[in-house]
Design a protein that fits this description.
Structural class: alpha+beta
Number of helices: 5
Low-confidence stretches: none
Protein name: Reverse transcriptase domain-containing protein
Number of strands: 5
Domain Reverse transcriptase: 1-160
Shape: flat
Order of helices and strands: HEEHHHHEEE
Mean pLDDT: 85
Number of domains: 1
Organism: Rhizophagus irregularis (strain DAOM 197198w)
Distance between the termini: 23 Å
InterPro entries: RT_dom
Largest sheet: 5 strands, mixed
Pfam family, one: RVT_1
Oligomer: single chain
């Protein structure tokens, strides 16, 4: 029998068609893959993220433009900063180099090692770090295709 966190390591990818066509013809650019996870896991992590967000906000752990995901914050402030830089460069005829990056499959791109280092850097409790790392290791997904599930495949890195 699986323990709770072992169940949490399994997901089902449900491809949602991004087009108005009736079928996506297996073109991955035309679908948005949604990972279906255990409901209890989602609730548990929502509670943890809310508590962590409150602490990060109250203690002002994140600064500058690293706060967009916190409660009562948005990407508006960083966008205003970029807009001000552009306006200043135009007004005073200055050269400005701005790099904007849209990370494709951002959650899939998160390195487990870097996630751990970030949590250690902001001094999160060791047991919290270990829990997050455990749930995000040795994970497997299946894909729902034609109303049937594929075989499980191992998820090498990233977060859900």
């Amino acid at each position: 029998m699986e323990n709770t966190t072992e169940k949490w390591k399994k997901g089902i990818i449900y491809p949602i068609n991004k087009t108005t066509r009736s079928h996506w013809n297996y073109d991955l650019k035309l679908i948005r893959p949604i990972v279906l996870l255990e409901t209890v896991r989602k609730i548990w992590f929502k509670i943890l993220v809310n508590r962590l967000s409150n602490i990060l906000t109250k203690e002002q752990v994140l600064t500058n433009t690293n706060y967009a995901a916190l409660r009562n914050e948005s990407t508006l402030e960083p966008l205003k900063i970029v807009q001000s830089v552009i306006e200043d460069a135009n007004k005073y005829k200055k050269e400005a180099w701005i790099l904007l990056i849209d990370i494709f499959k951002a959650y899939d791109s998160v390195s487990s090692l870097m996630l751990k280092k970030c949590m250690e850097r902001i001094k999160l409790p060791k047991n919290f770090i270990n829990f997050v790392m455990d749930v995000n290791q040795n994970r497997y997904n299946r894909v729902l295709v034609n109303n049937d599930l594929t075989e499980e495949y191992y998820i090498e890195d990233g977060i859900d």
